[in-house]
């Protein structure tokens, strides 16, 4: 009788153990299924935050963005835009309020996915670069340095720029069009179709090389300066800075973003000018649009990035490489600042724990 009780007890314990193990395995399986869903949701939220940041920041400075491009590509023999204030007034008088935001729809259609991919790529690139760095002996506990952040930012910039470059080319051409010029392009998709039909697929990537070279210091320095400056402010607490929660105020982060944008765009600006000019090559209506005067000389043809640099400097001087720098500086300072802060705020709102500073 006792032996039967022992057998019954053993059987019961075995059954309970089996049920518990089954429940634990089911729980783990459920968590494994849930984990990818959570990860995918986190990725989507990160991309949304980056897209919102890009759209908000670019729309806020759209008039200055258009003036910058007009200054970059205008013919030196027919000057219509001689400065920031004068240029904005000229656009307002000749084209009205809508003229100040011409091309912004195309710009946002490009910058929203560009910004989303850029911020997300930076997060992934910084993690990957840090992991590789920690594989080296003695670097097991290393943290991101300004140089590593520069590399991660460069990778993010190249990926994002390459993915959306055709939209950037179309945006540039739509932005240059004025009310007085023949309307060759009616919109984004019409412009893409016309470029493909008249100039071929390769035309969609005109100016890509200087863009790649320029995006390395531009985006790389943006991220490196922004994050490094934030880290320094949190750790050093200069100027009586109080950050009990190890979190900077919105105004302080805006200042960090402004500094980052100023440094990045100053270094990379000449390449942006060359890229924009190369994008206009092959456009049949470019001469009448850029010069605004049938008596003016047609835009120069460029055989490549080096040739574009050489001809620009020879015909217009070194200063031509910085045409539009003033409105661009006024644009970049708030634009980059707004983009960084908006990105972090939107991720906070969406409940995404990981941010670029982490």
From TrEMBL:
Its main location: mitochondrion. Pfam families: Mito_carr. PANTHER family: SOLUTE CARRIER FAMILY 25. It is found in: Mitochondrion inner membrane. It is a multi-pass membrane protein. Solcar repeats lie at residues 41-128, 144-232, 248-349. It comes from the Eukaryota. This is Mitochondrial adenine nucleotide transporter ADNT1. Belongs to the mitochondrial carrier (TC 2.A.29) family. One of its GO terms (biological process) is transmembrane transport. The keyword Repeat applies. One of its GO terms (cellular component) is mitochondrial inner membrane. Keywords: Membrane, Mitochondrion, Mitochondrion inner membrane, Repeat, Transmembrane, Transmembrane helix, Transport.
